[in-house]
Amino acid sequence: MAVLTLKFDESYKTRTLVIGGWVGDEAQWKKREKHWQKALAFENRTLPEGRKLSRYHAAEMNANDGQYKGWEKEQHRKLRFTKKLLNISGKGRMIPVAAGIDLRAFNEIFPHCDPPGVGSAYVLCMKALMEQLGAAIAETHPDDQLAIVHDHGDWDVPALQSYNQMVDDPAWEHRHKFVGITPLTWRDDVGLQSADLFAYESMRYLDAQNWKGENMRKPLQILFGLMNRAAFGFHITRKYLESLRKELEAKKGLAPLERMGDGEKRKRFGAV
Q: Which residue of 78, 82, 94, 199 could cross-link 11, Cys pair, CB 3.0 to 4.6 Å?
């Protein structure tokens, strides 16, 4: 029996929240982290003192901010570095996973903080991801289990609460597939930088789809083009949130909210 590891990060804007990362075994993670560190080291050798990178950070690099300040004047550097990291991610054998939510819809339909029976938008995303991964592992790796590592920060408490609610639920048949959850920083775990890349690009894609109808950005197209395996992606839609609200109202868990509708639970996005 092997223990696989999911390493994930969160990425969000006003309208969209996504948690995303990769599932792999110990050898796969060691190989990826080794190549990732080499890519960072190479880039640092070409940078002058005072501009060295401590890590890859998707939001900062795309905003040309923080350690990436001034990179808007060096598009060749940004392109080279991004392609190298995408190549490392796409050619490995690990599985990318993500769960996203229409954050604006969530805040409109559940205007109170952590409504009973729902929790936060982050909690819904994490539960959706665990539910799907539990079923997938039971089907494809029946003798294996899954450990979870996530980026340490403001979401530590909701992450632990979500995990405990899932594995402590006696009605959930796949609860024994999970062996623990650990918050770590990008300094402690290089793999979380890889999770940051996929979470950010998944968030940008879902945000553009929801509000502009645009296709995925070039980095995600390149990543999917390099892979010859499936990616798990789940979108918690406005329709599902409306349906969930209606269900909770019927159970007297929440006071009525007008203009409720029926709808689908989730729809796949970004699947290869």
A: 199
